[in-house]
Amino acid sequence: MLKQALFPGDPVSLDEAARIAGVTTDAASRALQHVARQGVVAQVRRRLWVRTGAAVDPYRLAARIAAPYAFAYGSALALNGAGPAERSEVLVSSPRRFEPFEYQGLAYRHVHPWNADGLVRVTVGPESVWVTCAERTIVDCVRLPANAGGIDDIMRAVDALPLRDPDAVLRWVDHYGEATLAARLGFVLESSGLYDGQRLLRELEARRPLHVVYLEAARRGGRLAPRWNLVVPPYMLPAGE
After folding, report:
1. Could you tell me if 31 and 70 are in contact, meaning their C-beta atoms sit under 8 angstroms apart?
2. Residue 1's pLDDT is what?
3. What are the two backbone dihedrals, phi and then psi, of residue 199, each rounded to the nearest 5 degrees?
4. Strand, coil or helix: what is 32?
5. pLDDT, tens digit, for every residue of 11-40?
6. Which of 118, 186, 205, 217 is the most buried (most CB within 10 A)?
7. Ranges in the chain, pLDDT < 70
8. Domain spans of the chain?
9. What are phi and psi of 211, to 5 degrees?
10. What's the rounded Cα separation, in Å, for the pair 11 and 7?
11. CA distance 199 to 201
12. pLDDT the model gives residue 239
């Protein structure tokens, strides 16, 4: 029954296998181990398997690691169509922590924070998965840029990440309550040229810190972007500023 239900490359959790076969999870585990010896499935980690014969989609696989879950940061950028599809790791937010692991050359890692708000469904192959919405994704990425490939990758992604709900962006900024985040996000959005004259930039400017901060905490030196009280690398400012 498992052989017939699963196509090559299909991931399956132990609970799914039990539902498919109409048996207990203990019986499903024995069945999976049996067909694994025949080379039909391969075990990825505890309670997670893959039908052999084709590469598994990393997002379909990761969607079965923990529940509830949502893809976040760089993984969310990719699923929202604003980041490279090929990444070195898949980032999963969930209230249920899991140990990082690797499979077929990709790292799978648990990230904080978990929040059930600001999630949308995105189609991946024959199913859909949970991912942070565009507005939450950009705020999260600017807040923790290391989880999205760094600030340069984020700035490149902004052009392909339309923010249709500016109020949602502001709600997420206020959710974290970090003035530095408001300044960094304001600079990133202003640099894209897509938000000139919009209330979103004015609202972010009103939330900026009163003291000077750095665009990237670990990178010292640079030039001041006075609107944001933000020191940024010189190459990020227009010539003459």
Report:
1. no
2. 81
3. -60, -30
4. helix
5. 999 999 999 999 999 999 999 999 999 999
6. 186
7. 85-86, 239-241
8. 2-56, 58-146, 163-241
9. -105, 165
10. 9
11. 5
12. 64
